[in-house]
Amino acid sequence: MWSFPLLALAGVGGTPATAADPTDSIAVRARELHSRCLVVDTHVDVAQRLLFEKFDMARRDSEGSVDIPRLREGGVGALFCAAWVPANVTGALAVKRALDLLDALREQGRSHPADLVLARTAEEIRAAHRADKIAIVLCVEGGHMMDNDLAILRTFAALGVRYMTLTHFADIDWAGSSGGLVSAGGNKGLTDFGREVVREMNRLGMVVDVSHVSDQTFADVLETSRAPVMASHSCCRAICPAMRNLTDDMIRALAKRGGLQQIVFHIGFLSAEYHAAMRAALAEFEARSRARNEAFVENEARTLREDERLSAEMMREGKLPRVSWEKIVEHVDHAVQLADAEHVGLGSDFDGAFMPEGMRDASMFPRITEALLRRGYSDDDIRRILGENVLRVLADAEGVAREIAAGASA
Question: Which CATH number applies to 18-271+323-409?
């Protein structure tokens, strides 16, 4: 989920996919390969729609990016769904909102058992795929939602939360954010309590997510965590200089510890040109956003869609550049060259950001498979990027939790 302080908003929904040429052998091979892969998207924000708009995922919708019909068309087998609460919502209210969002996600699984199943482990995701169901994996985007209380973190884990993003767009009491770095010029890391949070997540088998954290927090997490770490939705800073993205050194360090970078589809993190243009146009964007969203302030999902429309308007006005979905593959390429295909994947941020042209919703995932094939990626590497890497990191976190439990009982 994006926010204004980042200075890197996104673009406009893409054009519809066109029918593939039946004589194109690579396109045919890509469709067949994609159908055999377990495709995992490690970050979507559909929970906001479920809570604020009572959206039903079984219904194909003309807005948003995620619903069961489009997930089926895109061959998506597992979806990490975030409970996101703005950083300025804190304390008991943040905890309550997080629980409401998690409950809304769990209710979708209960309401649509033929299509959706709540999954907690790598093996449960694989079992869902074998049963032709879409695994819903719960996560929390922002450590402020645990309100400095490890008991609440343990409650999240008991409800099925498999990763927690330590910060969102502002520093919290125990960890620094990339947004804090931009707004305050600082680079806060983990406090002693922050390191305790990481160790408790290791014990619980929860993956530590370092998307949104400051560079110092990133380094502190790698030093503290016994289990591999994931950046659930982050691009490459060498291509786009948003502070939310990872530097080359960070990408290498993450891979060295067995971790994983999941490339996000958010235009403001994909394109240096868009990033710069939005910085220049931010004051106008914010003013126009406030004017048009005044009636929707209580509906975070609706305000996001209105801002998407505003971004599209500013593109038509020539104030923001258009960005193609192919930038996603450019970031994948860069990360793979640094860290190998075993440490790269996809975390779209569908329903929490504005998508590049040609990748407006989950039905368009197969385009990435075809693009990777055309760039010479092997079938095995594509399987890893599409989902196998995520399952490996989940399984590793589960293994570390078992080791900790065994050590405690020895």
Answer: 3.20.20.140
- Half-sphere exposure of 200 toward its Cβ, with a 13 Å CA cutoff? 20
Q: What share of the chain is helix, strand, coil (3-state, %, to 5)?
A: 55, 15, 35
Task: Of 81, 7, 38, give the one whose Cα is nearest residue 365.
Answer: 38
For the record, the structure tokens of 234 come out as: 């982050």
Decide: residue 369, CB within 10 A, 0-12 exposed, 13-18 middle, 19+ buried. Answer: buried
Distance separating alpha carbons of residues 244 and 373, to the nearest angstrom: 28
What are the C-alpha distances in Å from 51 to residues 98, 136, 298, 351?
10, 16, 11, 13
With contact defined as beta carbons under 8 Å apart, do 143 and 86 qualify? Answer: no
pLDDT for 191: 97
User: What length does the chain have?
Assistant: 410
CA angle 230, 392, 195 (to 5 degrees): 35
SS3 at position 169: coil
Write out the two tokens for 76: 């998506």
Please, which residues bridge with residue 246 across strands?
A: 236
What is the SS3 string spanning 66-135?
CCHHHHHHCCEEEEEEEEECCCCCCHHHHHHHHHHHHHHHHHHHHHCCCCEEECCCHHHHHHHHHCCCEE
pLDDT at 15 over 50: no
End-to-end C-alpha distance for the chain, whole angstroms: 42
By CB atoms closer than 10 A (0-12, 13-18, 19+), residue 21 is: exposed
Return left, alpha or beta for 349; rule: phi > 0 is left, psi -120 to 50 is alpha, else beta. left
Would you kindly state where each structural domain of the chain is located, as residue ranges?
A: 18-271+323-409
pLDDT of 136-195, one tens digit each? 999 999 999 999 999 999 999 999 999 999 999 999 999 999 987 655 556 899 999 999
Which residue bears the tokens 């240096």? 272
Instruction: Round to whole Å and give the CA distance between 9 and 353.
Output: 7
Q: Is residue 13 pLDDT above 80, yes or no?
A: no
Model confidence pLDDT, tens digit, residues 276-309: 999 999 999 999 999 988 888 778 888 888 888 8
In the prediction, which pLDDT does 184 show? Answer: 54
Q: For residue 70, what are the contacts with CB-CB under 8 A and spacing of at least 6?
A: 60, 361, 362, 363
pLDDT of residue 408: 84
Residue 395 CA to its chain's centroid (Å) = 19
Please answer whether residues 212 and 179 qualify as being in contact, where contact means their C-beta atoms are separated by less than 8 angstroms.
yes
> Of the candidates 108, 86, 104, which has an alpha carbon nearest to the alpha carbon of residue 304?
86
